[in-house]
UniProtKB/TrEMBL annotation:
Keywords: DNA-binding, Transcription, Transcription regulation. Residues 1-25 are annotated as: Disordered. InterPro entries: Bact_HTH_transcr_reg (IPR050679), Chorismate_lyase_/UTRA_dom_sf (IPR028978), Tscrpt_reg_HTH_GntR (IPR000524), UTRA (IPR011663), WH-like_DNA-bd_sf (IPR036388), WH_DNA-bd_sf (IPR036390). It comes from Streptacidiphilus alkalitolerans. This is GntR family transcriptional regulator. Residues 1-13 have a biased composition (Low complexity). Pfam families: GntR (PF00392), UTRA (PF07702). Transmembrane segments: none annotated. The keyword Thylakoid does not apply. Residues 16-86 form the HTH gntR-type domain. Residues 14-25 have a biased composition (Basic and acidic residues).
């Protein structure tokens, strides 16, 4: 006996769209919550959200996972799900102090020195800074905002230019001001490049982020007023907590 399938294709399509529609509704609700809540605000439990919105917990979990992936939410195991912390913003500008200012942030920037040693210059440092047989001072410091890891900064300096520089000097304060006031080195200009990257295991460990998490990589070569190259810096910033903005100016006189 042959059975005829009388299912309406439109009914099948509607059924397949319903879970997606529910997830989209939950996602929009969560986005509204995120917009009205402050950074780092705890989210209601999956059970409470499911009861409030009249959907299943797997639907809630799928929407939350999607917003975690997009950076709107963060999950802290054992504590719950939170709106993402506020991002630190550095504004790119053509002003005279823009390249040498500490990036503005809501909290306080501090440093923890991870490495501080004098060594022979590698080929790259020698090409940029000094002669190959002259020593360089290598400094690696973890930069924190309100005690939370934000950046890893690696500096190479001509050791002969900063003979009395100590590890403690690199823990706080403005480094370029220190160069000016103690060593009479006045930085004048720099070439800086920015590019996206992913965290390697060492970087992930220091920044407390997953391996292969997105990071912003910055390299800078700095010269003083005499034309000497006085610093080669390589820094990485957490992609989930750091962003750069710029103001664009348009020529309104050309056609």
């Amino acid at each position: 006996m042959t059975t005829t399938d009388t299912t309406d294709p439109a009914d099948t399509a509607d059924a397949s769209r319903r879970p997606t529609a529910k997830r989209d509704r939950v996602r929009q609700h969560l986005l509204d919550v995120i917009e009205n809540a402050g950074p780092g605000t705890g989210l209601a439990s999956e059970r409470d959200l499911a009861e409030e919105l009249g959907v299943s917990r797997p639907t809630i979990r799928a929407a939350i996972d999607e917003l975690i992936g997009s950076g709107h939410l963060v999950r802290q195991w054992g504590r719950g799900t939170f709106t993402s912390p506020e991002k630190v913003t550095q504004e790119l500008s053509d002003g005279p102090s823009a390249a040498f200012a500490v990036p503005p942030a809501e909290g306080a920037w501090t440093s923890r020195v991870v490495e501080f040693r004098t060594a022979e210059a590698g080929l790259r440092a020698a090409r940029l800074l000094i002669e190959p047989d002259e020593p360089v001072l290598r400094v690696v410091r973890l930069r924190l905002v309100d005690d939370e890891p934000m950046s890893i900064e690696r500096l190479e300096l001509p050791a002969l230019l900063v003979p009395d520089l100590t590890r403690d000097d690199m823990e706080d304060g403005n480094f370029y001001r220190l160069l000016r006031e103690r060593f009479e080195i006045v930085v004048c200009d720099a070439v800086q490049t920015l590019e996206p990257a992913v965290a390697n295991p060492d970087q992930a460990d220091l920044l407390d982020i997953p391996v292969y998490a997105p990071i912003l990589q910055v390299e800078r070569t700095t010269r003083d007023t005499t034309g000497r190259t006085v610093e080669f810096a390589h820094a990485v910033y957490r992609g989930d907590r750091y962003r750069i903005t710029s103001h664009l100016r348009f020529d309104t006189t050309s056609g």
